Each structure stands twice: as structure tokens, then as C-alpha cells.
Amino acid sequence: MSTQAEVDYIDEPLSEQAIHDYLAAHPDFFERHATLLNSLHLPHASGGAVSLVERQISVLRQKDLKLERQLKELIEVARANDLLAAKIHELTLQLLEAPDLKTTIIALEVAMRSGFGADQAILVVFGEPDAFTDINAGRFFRVIDKNAQELSPFKTFLDGSSARCGQIRDTQREFLFQEDADEVGSAALVPLANGAEIGFLAIASTDADRFHPGMSIDFLTRLGDLIAGALKRY
Fold first, then answer.
1. How high is the mean pLDDT in each 10-residue block of the chain (234 residues)?
2. pTM, two decimal places
3. Nearest 10 degrees: CA dihedral of 216, 213, 152, 228?
4. Residue 72 in domain
5. Residue 14 carries which DSSP code?
6. Where are the beta strands (DSSP E) in 86-167?
7. CB-based burial label for 163 (10 Å; 0-12, 13-18, 19+)
8. Do 110 and 26 belong to one domain?
9. Which range of residues forms the domain containing residue 39?
């Protein structure tokens, strides 16, 4: 008498990860099983169900819209950069034509206010104040000894070598903008020459987000180099 071994087959369901891994390894699976693809349905964001193909089309459309928005942002940035480059070029020509320091300072003050749209701007130059009494540029032009106690709040900035953007300390605002200090939402401090050898430029905005630590400082650095070069002529 013979016996036949009985074998139990356990039909274990595939895990979602196993299905995921298989489809990832066989991206042409639905091309070979088009009927299955058309029969699959996924819930739609607005309710009901759509086929997987329609869902894929929807996803692609969303990606397309995202790319379109990114492209528009890049175009806007490029236009803004072109505008800034044009303003830098115009200011460069004005500074080249300036016959003396007084004309140079006035050209810078006008450019900051009208050309670059600064709400407030102060040009701080290190030197002996009595040597610049012939220059009347209002509050825009400030001459001070580099070792003056009033500059102690700027020590970290002056010891560095790059522009600083964002919120500034109360003592810094009060020194630079005096009675209008409370109107300053954000500011950029731009060194003139390496280690702020000549001084620095302070540009302020009433908008707290206008200048922030994460912004690019390339434009500000070029502006600082340009101003430093113009001032060194005198």
C-alpha cells in the first residue's frame, strides 16, 4: 500500500513593499498589461475615482504647473538682476564724471534714494570730521574716527569682510538713523574696501523682510567695491 504525501500550500499575500519593489524594478509592467492599467482606479482629490492613467496625467499637470512657476520666478530674478546691473552701470558713469569728493558724495546720495529706492541710507567714512566740513550732504554723509566709541556696536561687522543683512541692533539703528531709527525694519551694512578700510554704507528699509540673512550679497559687494574705488580717488 502506497501513500502520497499531502502538501499544504500557504497562499501568503504580497506585502505593499514587495509590490512596490517589483513595479520599481519593472517600469514597463503596465505597458505589457494595458488592460490592467485601465481598470485601476484611484480616489480623486475632489471625490469619486479616476483611472490610474488619468491620475498620472493629473500628477504630470501639477508638475508642469510647478515648473512653470519656477520658470516665472527665475525670469523675475533675471529681470531684477538686469535692472540692478543697469543701475550699477549708470552710477559708475556718474562717479567717473564726478570732478571732486563733494560731487561724488552727492551722486551717491541721489543714487541711493532715487536709483536704488532706499528708504534711508547713510555713508559712514572713517577720518577726521574737520577735514570734510566743506561737504554738505545732510544726514547721508557721516565722518567719524574709526576708533570712536560710537562704533563699538559695529565691531563684529567691521572685523568681518562681507556685507551683513537683516535686523540690526538698537544701538546700531540709533547711531545710523537717529530720530528715524524706529522706522527701520531691516538693513544692509556694506563694507567699503577690505575690512571696511574706508568705512561702510548702511541701507535701510521699512520692510522687515527687504534685507534678510539668506539673501544674496553679490550686488551689495559690487556696490561696496564701486563706492570704495570712487572714494579712494580723493
1. 47 78 81 69 57 68 82 79 85 92 92 86 91 79 92 92 91 92 93 91 93 88 93 87
2. 0.67
3. 10
4. no
5. P
6. 120-126, 141-144, 164-166
7. buried
8. no
9. 17-60
